[in-house]
Amino acid sequence: MRIKLINPNTTQRMTDAMGRCAREVVAPGTEVIAVSPTMGPPSIEGYYDEALATPGLLAEVAAGEQEGCDGYVIACFGDPGLYAARELARGPVIGIAEAAMHVASVLAPSFSVVTTLSRTCNMAWHLAERYGMTRFCRNVRATDVAVLELDQPGSEARRIILDECSRALEEDGSEAIVLGCAGMAELCAQIQDELGVPVVEGVTAAVKWVEALVALRLGTAKRGDYARPLLKRYDGALESFSPTEAQPNPAASRFRR
Ligand code: 5HY
Question: pLDDT 10s per residue in the chain (257 long)?
Fold first, then answer.
């Protein structure tokens, strides 16, 4: 099977790191195609970044349908464009925040999210509400480490994140941690080893969830909300995004009718 892992920001080194993490956990026979859009913000740290990352993300999903991709991961903790992507895709589409929160919710009675900038904390709360996770999510904490600082040589990011996770366990009373940024994926194992509690990051959680759904021959429901977008011609710079008839996806036959 082919899973398209889409980093909605345009920073290729982040995309490469996510691809490495995903390929470590997928089963033999599962191909991970890790991509970034060619247009959009280099990091997503607010509503405006997220809005302007979405067209490029959706273009990658539309391309994936042509490429015969079986499923998709939206690898940004805001889960941008998740529902729009589901309108385009035949296969499952999972966001990393959605995946990480659900996984943590079956491993512990409660979790805290540890994310990047303070200004994105409410976005995480909104997602917890949307996913029915507020009864599990005790807190959303910011480290105020910018997304593109996470992997910088000499960065104190790992220690700062680890300290915030420790405070979450002590002060929030949480029994698990959700890492609130795709850029934290490569830090997850070390942090979990140090803390001794489940530390969940959404890239690998989402990839394995998509893999499981595709293996079960389950795809996105194409009735109602997630049916193909209605046909219409868009104006101006977005004309190329005009909804068209569904193109045959070579992978579609694998899904249960
Ligand atoms: C992410 N931004 O996972 C989010 C994290 C955040 O570029 N990739 C980004 O801070 O919301």
Answer: 999 999 999 999 999 999 999 999 999 999 999 999 999 999 999 999 999 999 999 999 999 999 999 999 999 999 999 999 999 999 999 999 999 999 999 999 999 999 999 999 999 999 999 999 999 999 999 999 999 999 898 889 999 999 999 999 999 999 999 999 999 999 999 999 999 999 999 999 999 999 999 999 999 999 999 999 999 999 999 999 999 887 666 666 666 65
Q: What burial class does residue 19 get, using C-beta atoms within 10 Å of its C-beta: 0-12 exposed, 13-18 middle, 19+ buried?
A: buried
Give the residues surrounding ligand 1 with Cβ less than 6 Å away: 9, 43-45, 76-78, 115-117, 120, 147, 181-183
Domains annotated on the chain, with CATH: 2-95+206-255 (3.40.50.12500), 97-201 (3.40.50.12500)
Angle, alpha carbons 161-167-173 (nearest 5°): 130
Residue written as tokens 């939206």? 74
Model pTM score: 0.95
Report CA(76)–ligand 1 centroid distance (Å): 5
> From atom 5 of ligand 1, which residue's Cα is the shortest distance away?
181
